[in-house]
Every structure is written in structure tokens, then in C-alpha cells.
Specification:
This protein is an alpha/beta fold and about 150 residues long. The protein has five helices and five strands, in the order αβαβαβαβαβ. The longest helix has 11 residues. The protein is globular, with a radius of gyration of 15 Å. The N and C termini lie far apart (about 35 Å).
Length: about 150
């Protein structure tokens, strides 16, 4: 990820992957934490890797990153095969309940899908649910909404 604040003006990509990726067919951190995800019977899916790293430092080890605000068909296939019942989508504040409902339509046939939504107005416009600290994460998580 570039640290240059003027990356758009300089036409520098925000992210550069060392190996080309044809499609997102995996989740960041799932390979490392699959046993923790299975033990929790729940997977927390964030947009970005940074959120997963924050969760790890807080001792929460069942989180992964989609690396985008969508879930690809290949990622859906991974989730459907994963032996956990509960999927919690914790995308950034700018993604609504309806956005998450739309992208999880197929997944809800197989799993319980929950959505972390900031009804309490805790987060800033583009924040991830963990960006305002663990206490605020707990509030957001406790008020997650089941998508039916």
C-alpha cells in the first residue's frame, strides 16, 4: 500500500500486489486462522487487512478480510464449504445493510449471516467497525443484525 498522500494526483496505485491476482478467491488471514474460526463457529469478515491486524492485537482471532467491499463467487464458495454456522459481515461504515443483504443472498441459503451496522453513529464516514477501539467494536458487534 502506498503511503504517499498524493497518490491519486501522481497516478500511483493505492495497492500493489507482488503476484497478480486474477480474482479474489481467498480471504486474508483465513489460512492462518482457520482453526480459530472453526472453534468460534463464526467468521468475522472485514473489508481490509488493517482491521484484521487490529483484531489480532486485541486477541480476537476469528477475523478475515475480503480485501474489497464485495464478496466474489469464489469467496462465497469458500464460505459455504467452511464448517461454521455464523458469518458476520463487518464492512466499513459506508456499506449499508441493504448492500450486505444483496451480496450475501446466496450465502444465506447455507449460513446464518449477520451484519455489523453503525446505528449508534459511533464511526466516522469511512471507518471500519474496529477503527474506534475495542469498546465501540463490542457495542457494534452486540447490536449486529441478522440478515434474513
Amino acid at each position: 500500500r502506498t503511503l504517499n498522500p498524493n497518490y491519486k494526483q501522481k497516478k500511483i496505485p493505492k495497492y500493489i500486489y507482488s503476484n497478480p491476482i486474477g480474482c479474489l478467491d481467498f480471504f486474508f488471514n483465513l489460512f492462518v486462522r482457520q482453526d480459530d474460526v472453526i472453534a468460534a463457529n463464526e467468521i468475522l469478515i472485514f473489508e481490509g487487512e488493517k482491521s484484521v491486524m487490529k483484531m489480532e492485537t486485541l486477541g480476537i482471532k476469528n477475523s478475515v478480510a475480503a480485501m474489497t467491499s464485495e464478496i466474489s463467487q469464489e469467496q462465497l464458495d469458500v464460505l459455504i464449504k467452511l464448517p461454521v454456522l455464523n458469518i458476520v459481515i463487518a464492512f466499513d461504515k459506508d456499506k449499508s445493510y441493504l448492500d450486505v443483504k444483496k451480496i450475501t443472498q446466496e450465502l444465506r441459503r447455507y449460513k446464518n449471516v449477520w451484519c455489523v451496522i453503525d446505528k449508534q453513529e459511533i464511526l466516522n464516514e469511512k471507518d471500519a467497525p474496529i477503527d474506534q477501539g475495542i469498546e465501540n467494536w463490542k457495542i457494534l458487534y452486540e447490536n449486529r443484525r441478522r440478515i434474513k
